[in-house]
Amino acid sequence: MDTEELYRENEALQESNEAMYAEIKKFNFGAFGLGWIWGLFNGAYKQVCIPCFVLFAFYFFPFLRLLCNPLVFFIMHIYFGIKGSEWAWEERDWKDIHQFKAVQKKWAIAGIITIFVVPILWLAFVIPMVYKALSPRGGASGFKSGGDAIAFVITESDSLRNQPNGSAIAKELVNVMNESYTRRNKKSKCELYNKNTIKLSKYDSAAGKYVPIVLYTISKKGSCDLEQKNCYIISYDVKNGRAIFAEKLYYNDKGLTVVPKEENDKLKEAQNKQ
Fold first, then answer.
1. Domain boundary, last residue among 134, 167, 196
2. Claim: this prediction has a pTM higher than 0.85
3. pLDDT (tens digit, 0 to 9) for every residue of the chain, 274 residues total?
4. Quick one: which of 61, 102, 107, 207 is 20 to 30 A from 272 by CA?
């Protein structure tokens, strides 16, 4: 081999090495987007998998839990992306740089899909759930009264919201309540008291029977509107077998409720005079 051929071979080898190093210095979207999953299949166990699992384990220790926040994970994944190609090249046996590029390209596609799909899922599902949980009507403790909770159930359920009148709502509400509320509260049951009133009862161990605790009378005329006051719920507490007026509230199709103080005071006064 003459000097010129040797020079050309060395030059080609140098160009190949430069191309290889340029490739392994590229940002690895597979490592960034898929983290420990990418590390598991690319030989980077120590560099990627162990830090992920250790950081996750920190969550179970109160004094270390602050480290388990999205910002820390994001910074860590950026580091994975910066160093990922270098780790994969060093930790696995590759036929050549072309095989390496082809494999990492597939991982990059999967990583980019994950980067975009996960935020979309958060926007579509998680954020609305969190918003609902944090909203004043998000949980049982957030309801101002039992009537407020009933209005929420009615307006959240298509089968209830679309019923034409209070009687139809009450009939269907009994089924909904027995499938949800009474299933969580084993010693409770819901049943029709009359055509547009439901009765919620609780099991009394001493009496050996179900004892009514509250009545809800439901009225609906057309599309519910707070200004028209055409949909309302009247609550009665049941004490010693006697129904005692608790409150009257109006609601609309969005579940917003209004308790008219003056009207409720008059109804309570009328109750006391009986």
1. 134
2. no
3. 555 555 455 555 555 566 667 777 889 999 898 888 898 899 888 888 888 888 777 777 766 766 667 777 888 888 999 998 899 888 888 888 888 888 989 999 998 888 887 677 666 665 555 545 444 444 444 678 888 888 988 888 888 888 999 999 999 988 888 876 656 667 788 899 999 999 988 888 888 888 999 999 999 998 999 999 999 999 999 988 889 999 999 999 888 899 999 999 888 888 887 7
4. 207
Amino acid in position 14 = Q
* Number of domains comprising the chain: 2
* Residue 211 per-residue DSSP state: E
Whether residue 164 is found in the same domain as residue 210: yes
Give residue 35's domain range: 3-134
Question: Can you tell me the distance from the alpha carbon of 13 to that of 17, in angstroms, rounded to the nearest whole number?
Answer: 6
Specify whether 13 is located in the same domain as 77.
Answer: yes
3-state secondary structure 194-260: ECCEEEEEEEECCCCEEEEEEEEEEEEECCCCCCCCCEEEEEEEEECCEEEEEEEEEECCCCCEECC
Both 94 and 180 in one domain: the answer is no
Domain endpoint, select from 134, 169, 192: 134
